[in-house]
Amino acid sequence: MCGCGDRHAPGEPTPYDVGQAELTTGRRTLLKAGGGLAFSTAALAAGAGAADAAPLARTRKRVYVLVFDGCTPEEISGGQAPHLADLMFGGKRFAKAQSMPIMETIPNHVMMMTGVRPDRSGVPANSVFDRKLGAVRDLDRSSDLRADTIIERLNRRGLRTGTVLSKEYLYGVFGTRATARWEPFPVLPITGHAPDEFTINAAMAMVEDVDPHLMFVNLGDIDRFGHADVTGPLGVKALRRLALAKTDLYVQRFVDLLKSRGTWKHSMLVVLADHSMDWSTTNRVVSLAGPLDEDPVLRGRVQIADNGGADLLYWTGPSAQKEDAVRRMVRIARAETGVLSVFDRRHKSLRLGPQAGEVVAFCRSGWRFSDPDPVTSNPIPGNHGHPATRPIPFFINGGHPRLQHYAASSLVAQTIDVAPTVGRFFGLTGAPKGGYDGRARI
Amino acid sequence: MLATGSAGAALTALPAPSTAAPSTAALATAAQRAGTRYFQHGIASGDPLPTTVLLWTRVTPTAASRPGSGKGPRVTVTWEVSTRKDFRRVLRRGAFVTGPSRDHTVKLDVTGLKPATWYYYRFGFRGTHSRTGRTRTAPAADATPTNLRFGVVSCTNWQAGYFAAYRGLAARNDLHAVLHLGDYLYEYGAGGYGYGSGDVDIRTHDPRHEMVSLSDYRRRHAQYKTDPDLQDAHAKFPWVITWDDHEVTNDQYATGAENHQPGEGDYLRRRARSHRAYDEWMPVRMNDTAGLRDGDRLYRRLTFGRLAEISMLDLRTYRSKQVVTLAPTPVPAIEAEVSDPDRTITGAAQMRWLKESLARPKPFWKVIGNPVMITPVSFVQVPADLLGPINDVTGLLPEDGFPYNVDQWDGYTADRKEVLRFIKDRHVQNALFVTGDIHSGWAAEVPYDVGNYPLGGTGAVEFVCTSVTSNNLKDITGTPAHTTSAVVEAAILANNRHIKYLNFDDHGFSVLDLNAKRAQMDWFVIGDRADKNTPIRYSRSFVSVAASGRVKETDRPLHTQKPGQS
Fold first, then answer.
1. What is the pLDDT of residue A193?
2. What is the C-alpha R_g of chain B?
3. Fewest CB atoms within 10 Å of the CB: B74, B249, B265, B471?
4. Which are the contacts of B431, defined by CB distance < 8 A and separation ≥ 6?
């Protein structure tokens, strides 16, 4: 798979299944919202359990982080999403913004909310080889995320937080951290996500009924339709353009709601993508499993976690042979057509941590990995994870007087900057232990 | 302390007093007159860095010390740098020894300056001073300037007319530097290449014959440097310059040139002489130094804070010979050889270097000072996915259609493909080619696959300035503006939808403005090149929104905007 589908051991319940079970057994509170929606909640009363945070809890500031999953910067600056473009040009934009390795959904959402790189958060990719489990799986368990999040930091200061995440695995990895979370519904089969129409309705309902100080929203249609868009390699991107146009309208509805409620003038809207998207045809597929298996040392001792545009290679043989194995994996992967670059995972620029294995391979634009099976493992045309999918849209708008309008910065903003930006907006002092890896952009 | 040793090799900065004694206006005027005698070729600055800028002049210590003569004494020229036009507070000063071995040119790096700061400078000789020049350092490496604004020019043929475009640049106060994309001077002899289809010499070259020897090149450089408009423009701003072909001779390539005949001697020796004179006479760092005879690598990077980095290319010294076509430009070439991967326009080392430039993460705008056009200008384009199988069988077709000019990147499509492939693989944003060479104004998107535009996406955008004086299509055909040229323009635009603007009729200059929202180029055009006082007027503006990879026209010229506006 590309790394965007759900991968679990046979019979293992997904975190989404677990969440639903918790609701059924009453371990989480179900808050009924308008329109038949429901949010599971922890303590909702501001200040509860956070005696030291009363001044912050009284703030009227609101932050909405809207993630347009898989959106490219050109799709907004090129005029395909007029409402988003208006928000971008009218706010402060970072036209040179980047996703961080691995350019996948889960790690970049985690980086947004933690402000730290994967070697500190424990979440380097969508899919990893779990050495204890002995299988490749998604990093979608709440326990996979080891770093403190801005959600929890705000919770501790008595602020309300909410997550409206359209994808099951995001719902899983952020777990019950927010004081209110939407259980994505209806979830489409195969894509494992709720359509944006439902997601934005949920976000609007949460604003009305919970009014979180920080709300983290993932809109998955642009990514999901992009993955499946067979017209993508030709550049037509028919499905994706349609999804983008619809989601663009939904966002305007959301902004209109904030303005009609009077919330806008206290708000900061952070709009970005987690990664962008690239398309490949069936004749531009890289599969490393075969070439690696031809090597006498590597045969049967390498596991691959396919992340669409990136392959993570894991040595499962004796530790004494690891360095030799790494050299062999790097050499063999580099020789494959369609491979752009291959790194020893310990390369200082990557900062992926040991969960990402020993070797990281990125494909070229217009190519994809399909491992272990070159045909069936990743048949979809739209992929990301490789450097071609690194640039993202990133801009800040809102009615709070602190924010700049019709401004632009030449600095490189990154997904990792969201948490420190949110923290600064709320006036949080200090930083997580070890400091943020990102920088505040206000 | 005075620098001594071999001419030009030693440079010592003298301690700068905090103030200099004021001089009377009369003394200043007399000194200025005398200075004009000694500094007949003006002054210049170039290649600004955050704390360093290169200064240039040429001293004429005796009447016999004519350029190219090899005569005259070794002499010492002093220099001063100040933030004040009256030099009441001199920040840096020094002395420079020059002589006939370097044609009495002076070229030095002034260090220890502040970033993004205007400075005044002048040279001294025998108690007189040169005119005062103004220059500006680049912003600090991590600075985020609101905007950067550059004058953009190319193709300045002395014989074809007066350099009114330089006059236009010198009259401005809003530029941070001037980019010259090549053909700063021309090699032809009298009557060889002049004004219009009849090649009339509005002014005649010195020497009157084609420049071939070292003395010829020096004399020609010297002649151009006497032009008052050129002198004013050099004195007003630092310049960033690269060469194209005519600095050596027409249509040059790594081992020869169209305009080099066996009777003119060994080509590489001729080129070496040309490069030597260029190094002496131009305010550029070759091999990254102000020194002479330490190499002739002209491609180099200049960083302007986080907002832009300019990579100036040399697309002549390392390129393969142009493909011989059945018919000359502008008849489309059908030769598949233009796509031969063994041919190169950059050379291997410069290609690696260009990729390094493109890969650098911090610069917002990756400006490429590009002597010849990179945008495909071709006919009968076929999508790459369809063309590949055809060529696998036949090998007959150029990859990006039939090009109309094989002297530009269209004649070296494998190199272009390699650059675009690099950009696409890494999704490099905001690559902006700024180009000269073809005596016409263009604004275009550079598609990844010209046969699949616009669906296939774009890797860069390109703005091409027109010539200052060199003949354009209207001049070559001897037809009125908007007649023959309009037909050719329409044919090219209809067959190349990625090209948004084309002007084959006018001469002039451009102004490029960069900020974090967009890149915008304004084109200014002049009247008759033969008229020294010809008027200059604003013409058109095109803009590329950051991260869009697109180009569109705007009705908001730069002079109606505040810096940093979109």
1. 82
2. 23
3. B265
4. B358, B366, B368, B423, B446, B459, B460, B461
Q: Work out the average pLDDT over A382-386.
A: 94
pTM of the complete model beyond 0.90: yes
- The average pLDDT across A59-88 equals 92
Which helix (H) or strand (E) segment holds residue A302: the answer is: strand A302-306
> Tell me, which fold does domain B1-137 have in CATH?
Immunoglobulin-like (2.60.40)
Question: Which of A280 and A230 is assigned the larger pLDDT?
Answer: A280
State the nearest Cα–Cα gap between A187 and chain B, in angstroms. 32
Strand partners, A272: A67, A394
CA distance linking residue B276 with residue A430, whole number of Å: 59
Please choose, from the candidates B423, B449, B406, B434, the residue with its C-alpha nearest in 3D space to the C-alpha of residue B514: B434
A280 in contact with B, Cβ within 8 Å: no
Answer yes or no: do A95 and B457 touch at CB < 8 A.
Answer: no
H-only helix segments in B88-227: 164-170, 214-224
Give me the pLDDT at residue B22, please: 35
Q: Which CATH number fits domain B138-560: 3.60.21.70, 3.10.150.10, 3.40.1180.10, 1.10.260.40?
A: 3.60.21.70
Mean of per-residue pLDDT scores for chain B: 92
Q: Do B452 and A409 touch (CB under 8 A)?
A: no
Contact state of A388 with B517 under an 8 Å Cβ cutoff: no
| Domain spans, chain A | 32-280+388-426, 285-380
Q: What is the 3-state secondary structure (H, E, C) of A208-236?
A: HHCCCCEEEEEECHHHHHHHHCCCHHHCC
Q: Per-domain residue ranges for chain B?
A: 1-137, 138-560
Which of B146, B424, B429 to mutate to test binding with chain A, by most A CBs within 10 Å of its CB? B429
- Is A408 in the B-facing interface, judged by CB distances under 8 Å? yes
What residues of B are in contact with residue A412 (Cβ under 8 Å)? 361-362
CB neighbours of A382 closer than 8 A, spacing ≥ 6? A2, A70, A223, A226, A227, A228, A229, A232, A240, A277, A278, A279
ipTM score: 0.90
What is the signed CA dihedral for B283, B285, B286, B287, rounded to 10 degrees? 170
Question: A383 and chain B: CB distance < 8 Å anywhere?
Answer: no
Q: Which of A236, A388, A408 sits opposite B427 (nearest CB)?
A: A388
Q: Does A245 touch chain B (CB under 8 A)?
A: no
Alpha-carbon Rg of chain A, whole angstroms? Answer: 21
Least confident residue range of A117-126, A224-233, A333-342, B424-433: A224-233
Give the closest residue to B505 by CA, choosing from B491, B486, B523. Answer: B486
**Each residue's pLDDT tens digit, B368-400:** 999 999 999 988 777 777 777 666 666 667 888
Tokens 């002489």 appear where? Answer: B273
Question: Which of B362, B417, B424, B426 to probe the A interface (max A CBs under 10 A)?
Answer: B426
Residues of B within 8 A of A77 (CB-CB) are 545-548, 550
* A285-380 classified as CATH 3.30.1360.180: yes
Q: Which residue has the tokens 């010294």?
A: B317
CB contact under 8 A, B546 and A96: yes
Contact B403, B332 (CB under 8 A): yes
- Min distance B547 CA to chain A CA atoms (Å): 6
Interface of B with A (CB under 8 A): 144, 305-307, 361-362, 364, 421, 424-427, 429-430, 452, 454-457, 515-517, 545-550, 566
Helix (H) or strand (E) holding B11: strand B11-14
Closest Cα in chain A, distance from residue B421 (Å): 8
Tokens at A118, concatenated? 């994967």
CB < 8 Å to A388, chain B = 424-427
CATH 3.40.720.10 fits A32-280+388-426, yes or no: yes
Question: At B3, is the pLDDT very low, low, confident or very high (cuts 50, 70, 90)?
Answer: very low
